[in-house]
Write a structure and sequence with these properties.
76% of the residues lie in helices and 1% in strands. The chain is mostly helical. The radius of gyration is 65 Å and the shape is elongated.
Length: 433
């Protein structure tokens, strides 16, 4: 650093100004200003770099968040699509199942209708043949029996007796028509049937008598005539009896047998269910009795143990039980009695146990808060001791004109808060010693 000379006048005589002296303080201040300016510039540069890096990190994080959001949206969309596809598949499966069941039911209904139609047709066919077969048998019997009776009743002196066969055979036929009328009009058909059998029996008896007494007729003709007189009305009456049962809804022997078997099966099922229910109830009752017995034994053991181990508390608990009408000392009664006798709300804790516990807790707290001195201290591990300076070594500051070296922030790592607290505790302990 140089300075311009300044002329001065002494008594009118110009005198040269003395040369300026070396000022280390000014140099130090200037150096400090330059250092501070550089530090500020570095700080501004570091701050700008930090902001740029932070903006870059923020942009990266924002891009990452957007990517994650897009991925989640895509996953959500895929999930919704998968759920929709699963819903459609489920709906299609349900529709297919419904259609299959409908087709199955329709097929079963069609088969049932076909079976019913076939059965109705078979019934009509069988009824038709049964009806005309019965009438045919009656007509054949009439054809056989009528000539026998004509031969038996023919008399030239009494020609009116020729109408007797028509009376005898017509009696059963007319009564058969009356039985059919009774069935159609839901009337009692029994009198008609009795009349049919009486008329047929009379006609059969006359035919048999004619065959035995008249050689012109003979035994064979009389016997077959008697059978014909009985067979036709019997077959026709059997037909009318079936029609009457069908009209009245009376079940047949086969239907009655099936109903009896079904009733027997239902009765057996009810008996088995009742037996199983009785066995289940008996088992449940036995298990309940066993649980009650075990609970009673456990209660007795608990009462005996409490009465022996804590007689004072037991006396109060038994008094509370008796006053409240309880069957035995419950856990609630025992806890209340324990609180009233010992003062502790926790069952099993006494004053001595509470005092010992609190003393142990106090000792633990004292040991936890005590300072650590020795090899386990954190100070030396944080800042290891430096070597002592040789007293004969030259002072490094003298080579710089006595100016101490400049220290900047961050030259050394700061002490950890735990180390500072530990050092303060140790200094306090050393002062007390």
């Amino acid at each position: 650093m140089t300075a311009m000379s300044v002329e001065k006048k002494v008594n009118g005589t110009p005198v040269a100004a003395p040369e300026p002296r070396f000022d280390p303080r000014a140099l130090a201040e200037a150096e400090a200003i330059r250092t501070r300016t550089a530090a500020e510039a570095d700080a501004l540069r570091i701050e700008a770099q930090g902001k740029a890096e932070a903006e870059k990190i923020l942009a990266t994080e924002k891009a990452e968040k957007e990517r994650i959001a897009n991925e989640r949206a895509a996953m959500r969309l895929e999930k919704e699509q998968a759920d929709h596809q699963a819903y459609l598949a489920k709906k299609n499966a349900e529709t297919a199942k419904s259609n299959t069941e409908k087709e199955k039911n329709d097929k079963a209904a069609a088969e049932k209708e076909a079976a019913e139609a076939k059965r109705d047709a078979e019934q009509q066919r069988s009824e038709h043949w049964w009806k005309w077969g019965a009438r045919g048998i009656y007509a054949v019997g009439l054809i056989i029996a009528a000539p026998v009776q004509f031969m038996h009743f023919w008399d030239r002196a009494r020609p009116f007796l020729i109408a007797a066969p028509a009376l005898l055979e017509g009696l059963a036929l007319v009564l058969a028509f009356g039985a059919a009328w009774a069935v159609a009009h839901r009337r009692d058909v029994a009198p008609y049937r009795v009349g049919i059998m009486l008329g047929a029996a009379i006609a059969a008896g006359i035919n048999m008598y004619g065959g035995l007494s008249d050689p012109r007729i003979g035994f064979n003709a009389g016997l077959i005539g008697a059978i014909a007189s009985l067979g036709g009305p019997i077959v026709l009456m059997a037909y009318e009896h079936g029609i009457a049962q069908k009209a009245d809804g009376i079940p047949s022997w086969r239907e009655r047998r099936a109903a009896e078997k079904k009733a027997e099966a239902e009765e057996a099922a009810r008996a088995n269910a009742a037996k199983a229910k009785a066995e289940t109830e008996a088992k449940a009752a036995a298990e309940k009795a066993a649980r009650e017995q075990a609970a009673a034994e456990e209660q007795q053991r608990r009462d005996a143990d409490r009465q022996q181990g804590h007689p004072e508390v037991w006396a109060v608990a038994d008094a509370l039980r008796s006053a409240r009408g309880s069957q035995y000392v419950t856990e609630q009664i025992w806890a209340e009695a324990w609180t009233r006798v010992t003062g502790c709300k926790t069952v099993g804790i006494t004053l001595d146990i509470e005092a010992q516990s609190r003393a142990a807790q106090a000792r633990m707290q004292t040991v936890t808060d005590a300072p650590i001195i020795g090899e386990f201290s954190l100070i030396e591990s944080h800042r290891p001791p430096t070597a002592k300076r040789d007293p004969n070594a030259p002072d490094g500051r003298r080579g710089n004109g006595g100016t101490p070296p400049i220290r900047r922030a961050g030259d050394s790592a700061p002490n950890h808060p735990v180390a500072r607290k530990q050092a303060a505790v140790e200094r306090t302990t050393e002062k007390k010693d």
